[in-house]
Amino acid sequence: MRTQKIVFALLMIITLLCVLPLFFILVLLIYHSLPVLNLRFLLDYPREGMRAGGIFPALVGTLYLALGTAIVSLPLGVITAIYLNEYAPKGRIARLIRIAIVNLAGVPSVVYGLFGLALFVTLFHFGVSLIAGIFTLSILVLPIVITAAEEGLRSVPMSFREASLALGATRWQTIRRVVLPNALPGIATGAILALSRAAGETAPILFTCAAFYLPRLPKSPFDEIMALPYHVYVISTQVPHAPLSIQYGATVVLMGLVFILNTVAILWRMRLRRVKKW
Questions:
Q1: What is the CATH number of the domain that holds 129?
Q2: Within a domain: residue 26?
């Protein structure tokens, strides 16, 4: 018992050492952003070369990127996971595909940005645009979505499939009506990670869609946009004499946006776990 208490105490100390610095940084960011952290800052357009005004175009652009990435990557990721887990023959090719997916998840984001620049911006002639950024971020998060969705499908007991097939359902009916509803919590986990990654990435949008200064909203998917991650980088490093309160305020809003997206996705996942759709 004494050894167990010592181990628990050490684990508690290590946890506090990890959490307290993060809490201190968060408090520091919020404290320095208080002079500008209000509704006007969120709904106003930047002025005077981003030394005044708000972050409305960057906020909307980030939402467009995150939601567009989810719309593109989730169906592709789930379809790929269904094929790998339910249809692909168990052999060398399937193992190689899974190894490739794992390796792609570890590729630096700047490589995806250069790939998106070469493929979508240059080869497909999308230009520096919202749609090029969405496709690039979708490729970036696709390995995460595939892995999470496949794990969700694997978590469904094989007996569920066998019972459905025994009742006369086809393989696709079994997947659509039995497997997928029970795998949705795992798929939601992939959606959470994808939204968080897409909303916070800077390097991919730097090459494909982000504008340095564009105090207006995009009128079409082929327009450039402002985005919060790149906006924070710009006003912190490229804009001389930018007020610190605006820099801290944009950072806190970006963190808050990611937190809200995560919270909504987590609540959705919890609801899926409570209510099974058959």
A1: 1.10.3720.10
A2: no
* Residue 256 domain boundaries: 55-274
Both structure tokens of 80: 């790929």
Rounded distance, CA 258 to CA 266, Å? 12
Q: How many domains does the chain have?
A: 1
**CB 261 within 8 Å of CB 199:** yes
Q: What is the pLDDT of residues 192-234, one digit of tens each?
A: 878 888 888 888 999 999 888 888 888 899 999 999 999 998 9
Enter the pTM of the model. 0.87
For residue 183, tell me if it sits in a domain: yes
Q: Are 227 and 58 in contact (CB under 8 A)?
A: yes
Question: What would the 3-class secondary structure string for the chain be?
Answer: CHHHHHHHHHHHHHHHHHHHHHHHHHHHHHHHHCCCCCHHHHHCCEECCCCEECCHHHHHHHHHHHHHHHHHHHHHHHHHHHHHHHHCCCCHHHHHHHHHHHHHHCCCHHHHHHHHHHHHHHHCCCCCCHHHHHHHHHHHHHHHHHHHHHHHHHCCCHHHHHHHHHCCCCHHHHHHHHHHHHHHHHHHHHHHHHHHHHHHCCHHHHHHCECCCCCCCCCCCCCCECCHHHHHHHHHHCCCCCCHHHHHHHHHHHHHHHHHHHHHHHHHHHHHHHCCCC
CA 140/CA 116 separation, integer angstroms: 10
Within its chain, how far is the Cα of 68 from the centroid? 11
CA-derived radius of gyration, the chain: 22
In sequence order, the 6+-apart residues with CB closer than 8 A to the CB of 241 are 51
Domain presence at residue 50: no
